[in-house]
Amino acid sequence: MQADLPRIVLASASTARRAVLEAAGLRFEALPAAVDEAEIKAAAQAEGIPPADAALMLADAKAERIARRDPEALVIGCDQLLVCEGVWFDKPADLPAARAQLQALRGRTHDLVTAVVCHRHGGRVWQHVAVPRMTMRDFSNAFLDAYLAAEGEVLTRSVGAYRLEGLGAQLFARIQGDQPAILGVPLLPLLAFLRQHGVLAT
Ligand SMILES: Nc1nc2c(ncn2[C@H]2C[C@H](O)[C@@H](COP(=O)(O)OP(=O)(O)OP(=O)(O)O)O2)c(=O)[nH]1
């Protein structure tokens, strides 16, 4: 890597986000940002802030928290909200909550409001929001219980209580949007920015 390229930091604890960027060949450091997402989400909802703006606020908060340590670094922050018929869902606390959440989402369509921001030199230099639209089958409880047993606690790390990659594909009747955005990172717009910013080879 050329010496004058900025250090890239992903302000995230998400294994899914890290895997997407690593698979795309990005070389970066991943540092979790200690941000009280629940508090920011609750305040945004109370103020009637639209999901896309709330997701950008959360992504900014994570990037800012990490960028303070190294203003020269290019810090990537992401956030993903799940909205189904106006109701915002969060990562389930445990498997029973994952079961209840999947029962609430089955047979319905939900949006994954997925924001990504880049911060450098003390401010946001780029942002993008993608909104994949996910339509779930009206799957049976027997199917649901088999899915939960097969996947286990990892489902608590996903805002939708599912993993599209793998068995989770069987939950869906229709998907509008690209898989990296569903997994939490609008990848191609981000890579385009990184090339334009001189961080990736053109
Ligand atoms: N593996 C997988 N993960 C998914 C899928 N859909 C959503 N997710 C994950 C990506 C993110 O880790 C999480 C969205 O929640 P957040 O945006 O709050 O991120 P999280 O708290 O996990 O990490 P971060 O805030 O970036 O430190 O859900 C999927 O289909 N497969």
Automatic annotation (TrEMBL):
Say yes or no: keyword Iron present: no
Q: What is its EC number?
A: 3.6.1.9
List the protein's name: Nucleoside triphosphate pyrophosphatase
Species of the source: Neoroseomonas oryzicola
Homology family = Belongs to the Maf family.
Q: What is its main location?
A: cytoplasm
Q: Which UniProt keywords apply?
A: Cytoplasm, Hydrolase, Nucleotide metabolism
What is this enzyme's class at the first EC digit?
hydrolase
Compartments (UniProt record): Cytoplasm
Active site per UniProt: 79
Biological process (GO), any one: nucleotide metabolic process
Q: Does the keyword Hydrolase apply?
A: yes
Its catalytic activity?
a ribonucleoside 5'-triphosphate + H2O = a ribonucleoside 5'-phosphate + diphosphate + H(+); a 2'-deoxyribonucleoside 5'-triphosphate + H2O = a 2'-deoxyribonucleoside 5'-phosphate + diphosphate + H(+)
Reported cofactor(s): a divalent metal cation
Alphabetical list of HAMAP family matching this protein: Maf (MF_00528)
Q: Which residues form a coiled coil?
A: none
Classification via InterPro entries: ITPase-like_fam, Maf-like
Record function comment:
Nucleoside triphosphate pyrophosphatase. May have a dual role in cell division arrest and in preventing the incorporation of modified nucleotides into cellular nucleic acids.
Molecular function (Gene Ontology), one example: nucleoside triphosphate diphosphatase activity
Which GO CC terms are listed, alphabetically?
cytoplasm
